[in-house]
Specification:
The chain has 208 residues and is α/β, with parallel strands linked by helices. It has one domain: 3-Layer(aba) Sandwich (Rossmann fold), CATH 3.40.50.300. 41% of the residues lie in helices and 13% in strands. The chain contains eight helices and five strands. Strands 2-3-1-4-5 form a five-stranded parallel beta sheet, sandwiched between helices. The radius of gyration is 17 Å and the shape is globular. This is Chloramphenicol phosphotransferase.
Amino acid sequence: MLKIDKPGKIIILNGTPRSGKSSIVAVIQNTFEGVWMNVGVDRFMTMTPEKYQPGIGLRPGGERPDLEPLVTIMYRAMYETIAIYSRLGLNVVVDVGHHEGYSVSLEILSNCARILNGLPVLFVGVRCPIEIIMERRLKTGYVGYTAEGNVPKPVSLWQQLVHVPGIYDLEVDTSVLTSDECAKLIHQRLEDGPPPTAFQKIERREFN
């Protein structure tokens, strides 16, 4: 039987849709040493039946309170999966967009942090200005500005809520850094930085 000397590393990339998380994931999987499993919102959405979509990808705004109990369970399932992979010695990179913009407070992020208690989690904020997000949406065929020239409300809400409470071990800005440069910074933080503490603070709700 394979001997597991230590748990696998966990990198969680948190940001809005179109912020560049998936591109960073690809670089990590292709260039970092060891096996890096990709677990995230997009993967879980492809497993979700059509009638329960968007499932774990439910955007902020409280539009589907009927789905919120399921979203809570799905996040728990995803993080329990991450924990299992890590305990088996597999590294995990996760792309996600945490927010609390539901019809009621679900406290998903702090509950997820509790699931990964004791495991090596690097929590990375992937930031990108709204103007660049809109450019990327237009290039990929998504809804652009409203008829009045405004940013659509769901997109604006993502931008406002995804980085709350804003506690990270590292932050990168994909409007000024390439995916390779972001991955390099993450690698340096893993190798040379102090032990990550963001998820511990979030679990203890040390938001101030």
